[in-house]
Amino acid sequence: APARGAPAGEGVRAVHAAAAPSVVAVAASGRRGSGFVVGDGRHVVTSAHVVGADARVEVSRAGRAVSARLRGTEPSVDLAVLELEEPVEGARPLAFAAAEPRVGDAVVAIGAPFGLEGSVSTGVVSGLDRQIDAPNGFAITGVIQTDAAINPGNSGGPLLDMEGRVLGVATQIATEGGRNEGVGFAVPADVAGRAVEAIVATGRADLPYLGIVGQGTGEGVLLAEVMAGGPAASAGLRAGDVLTAVAGSRVTSSAEVADALAGRRPGDRVRVEARREGAGVSTEVALGVRPPGGPVSP
């Protein structure tokens, strides 16, 4: 079982010794972040906002730089995958955790805050199922909150459990002054793992898209916008409808809509139930592909 409470020094040293050789610094057009080696050892996961639009970036560890090309990005979950020109010496690919963490579980973050490679910070899982905005405006759901120090340059680095498995990918902090205040966020392993696997295989994540902007009401999800020409609009849904179920799952929040679509692919058809002016509406929606420009992109 995952360790509970603040991690002890011996355990942290073991996690750092095993995982740090697989964590790299990432540099792209003046932006700096972190990343970690996965899969066959020739791919690195990092944050989409670190890479930006660069087709080629540089990764480094222990003062040795390696060139990499961008394999693909999924800005709606702030993830990118790089393909290395040569393996990182001594790196062992890190695995995504299969089990979900619990609040209070001990965690270790490794990255290159402010360019300081191999830095380690510790803490606990402070909260689960948080929702944050991706750089392109999509909501990232199921996010892990941690008090392990995450600072500029940590983005794209791993948040690890005490077995050295990747619980999440560091992405943002909540701050009022640009400094770490003990509230950091990581894209969860299940979301990151699915996206990374698809990008490695095809260069694209192609996550599903309904084409709606909604707000949870406790009884459903009130649709504030339904994108013209999008999947939901094409299926007859419109602003003012209240979604009550998606793909057979009851929904009362945007996070629950995202959960209902987890594992689905563009082109899949899902049944959507809604309320409209007191009457029930049932329709089938053919899922689209999330537009990279954001949820309100045509």
Could you explain how this protein is built, in words?
The chain has 298 residues and is mostly beta strands. Helices cover 14% and strands 42% of the residues. The protein is built from 5 helices and 20 strands. A 6-stranded antiparallel beta barrel has the order 1-2-3-6-5-4. Strand 7 (106-111) and strand 8 (119-133) form a beta hairpin. The N and C termini lie far apart (46 Å). The mean pLDDT is 91.
Summarize the structure.
By secondary structure, this protein is mostly beta strands. The chain has helices spanning 9-19, 48-51, 189-202, 231-234, 254-261, and strands at 23-28, 31-38, 43-46, 56-61, 64-74, 79-84, 106-111, 119-133, 139-146, 158-160, 166-173, 184-188, 208-209, 212-216, 221-226, 242-246, 249-250, 269-276, 279-286, 288-289.
